[in-house]
Task: structure prediction
Amino acid sequence: MDEILKLRNIHKSFGPVKVLEGIDFSIERGEVKALLGANGAGKSTLIKIVGGVHSPTDGEMFLNGEPYGVKNENDAKKKGISIIYQELSLIPSMTVIDNIFLGREFVKDGFLNRKQMNIEYGKICEEFEFDIDADTIVSDLSIAKQQMVEIMKAISYNADLIIMDEPTTSLTNGEKEGLFKIIQKLKGLHKSIIYISHMLEEIFKVCDSAAIMRNGIMVGSYKIQELTKSKIAELMTGNLENGSIEKKDWCYVDARSASALETVHMTGRKVKDINFQVRKGEVVGLAGLVGSKRTEIINLIYGVDQMTEGSIRMNGKEVKIRSPKEAIANKIGFIPEDRKNLGLILDQEIYKNASAVQLRKCRKHGFLSKEKEVDFAKEGIQRLAIKVNSPEQQVKELSGGNQQKVVVSKWLNQDLDLIIYDEPTKGIDIGAKEDIFQTVKDFAQKGIGVIFISSDLEEVVRVSDRILVVRNGAIAGSLTAAEASVQSIMNIIFDV
Ligand SMILES: Nc1ncnc2c1ncn2[C@@H]1O[C@H](COP(=O)(O)OP(=O)(O)OP(=O)(O)O)[C@@H](O)[C@H]1O
Ligand SMILES: [Mg+2]
Result:
């Protein structure tokens, strides 16, 4: 046995809350091992202990057979462990190359040796087939490209153990394939990889084995051949029923339903002449590849970007929406893809985040009532089974998937005419996806129009009454629920 990392009886508590309870884990050289578990199971916490972000409350760690202690993130890197964290860690205002070499810049005679940095950057790009311009400012890149830079950065340390915490959540299919090739290559170089993802197809594609956690406990470690999707779901949740995507058995719209939203020749910087309607109670799916400009269409409706031509009608009347604030005033709700920047204030309590768009309802005798805010948050926590210690906990302390659920919970019970979901299941475990779909159904049942965007086409088919396929900033085709399938959507996307 050639174990690179071994963890024995790891415990971690945050104050009184036990998050990890006696975890055993090991990975060998040249092995690609998945770390699986539902939202809040403790995956990220475990790897943060390995990476020196958190220290364990108890337990032992061994690296290459020697006791392994780690002081901080840099120390972990020095010892050959490189981690891609779930929360991207790039500095947005800096260039790609400066981010990659941050803290280990090449210096010559007291000056930055840009030439050497560029040569090294070129080598990484060539070896792993990246093609991102070194001098681009990170904030100018799409989230997908930022995620690629994060991956490049982790690889560039030439570590022996690379840990990836949900590395593909924003990647395009092509980029995902690129990453899988990189993983194969690293494996060939006898490197070890711990791979965290909720997309089980990926696990079967790239992993040799999987360790499965449930509620802070290690359920077991399995060879990939011993597992199936439903077996994983069962081990993760302890429940046989969970994890299968059910068929949609509801519809709250017909040809007589009034219009909730209509776009008329809507045109912006990146999209052209968009015409579509969402009726009350209707779920309209927007399908398309990452980069097809679905989010741009949404940004125009929600007032994030400005239209250059065309107009929007809400309930049959033309409205001008120049900012998200005006969108909310027009009874439009929005669950953004970029939850960290647009959806949440991480340093604030859950209840403050949850009530942010409902403040009017949370007043008592004219004043904001904390009690009402907390009550409102509690309802969301219950409906979406959000794993929290208390509504007064800060959002940044929640697991990634549970943060996403808080974004969705903000809009529950809100008086809306339209709600937009942009990649709502990103980072959500397979069991909890049903809770998100249930909120879509609840909105539709109340007569609210829904726009639903997801890169997972099965999901779009699963919830939509009608699907619009977006290609290159225009609507390339439309499918009824009866016509919709992953195949029929792909046919329009690829124009076959
Ligand atoms: N700094 C912290 N303070 C208090 N509790 C925390 C802190 N960090 C994590 N937790 C709690 O630890 C538990 C495990 O979180 P963790 O982020 O490890 O889950 P995860 O398995 O990575 O989930 P996900 O799939 O949603 O990313 C959660 O209940 C979370 O709220
Ligand atoms: Mg996590």
